[in-house]
Write a structure and sequence with these properties.
five-stranded antiparallel β-sheet, seven-stranded antiparallel β-sheet, globular, single chain, mainly beta, about 50% strand
């Protein structure tokens, strides 16, 4: 049985913000319906309607350390599968797909060891693949589904002024 996630697959929609007009008015936004940490300034690219984590330090959009973008879903007891259709990276980044308990996602350095982490996967190691994470819920509980990430500047090394990471879909299904 599919579980409804908000704005979770391509084509994504933006929230109408304009946090980085240097690339064109309203091109870069936050993906609508998702909770963002204060440093997750851009997560949506209107050019392609993509879930796109993005920085451009040479143009004034700072690198992101421990960025978080997620949504919270109330799950009943059962077994679930989260499919993430992973896109690709341009530049140096670290990105985990994460399912966790609590009010937010764990910090990047704690994803693998946090008692609140239910399941996680390194998305950079799985570019252009569809991955599946099993989630077993023993009692009704809210869970957070999203990404925890670091995006670093690559301009000095490659001449490319931005770093980005795209994800194509998050699909949650109750399987038992």
């Amino acid at each position: 049985t599919p579980v409804n996630l908000v704005n979770a697959k391509s084509p994504f929609t933006g929230d109408g913000s304009n946090p980085f007009p240097a690339l064109g008015a309203f091109r870069m936004q936050k993906v609508a319906g998702w909770t963002h940490s204060s440093n997750a300034i851009v997560s949506y690219d209107n050019n392609g309607k993509a879930f796109s984590l993005f920085i451009a330090p040479v143009w004034g959009l700072a690198p992101v350390g421990n960025g978080k973008v997620h949504q919270t879903v109330e799950l009943q007891q059962g077994h679930y599968v989260l499919k993430i259709r992973v896109g690709g990276a341009i530049g140096p980044c670290d990105v985990y797909g994460v399912i966790s308990r609590g009010t937010s996602l764990p910090d990047y350095s704690m994803v693998t060891t946090s008692p609140n982490t239910i399941s996680y996967i390194n998305l950079v190691e799985n570019q252009n693949k569809t991955i599946e994470l099993l989630v077993i819920v023993t009692e009704p509980t809210p869970v957070n589904i999203g990404v925890v990430y670091n995006l670093r500047d690559q301009y000095a090394a490659t001449g490319t002024p931005w770093t980005s990471f795209n994800t194509n879909a998050f699909e949650l299904t109750r399987v038992q």
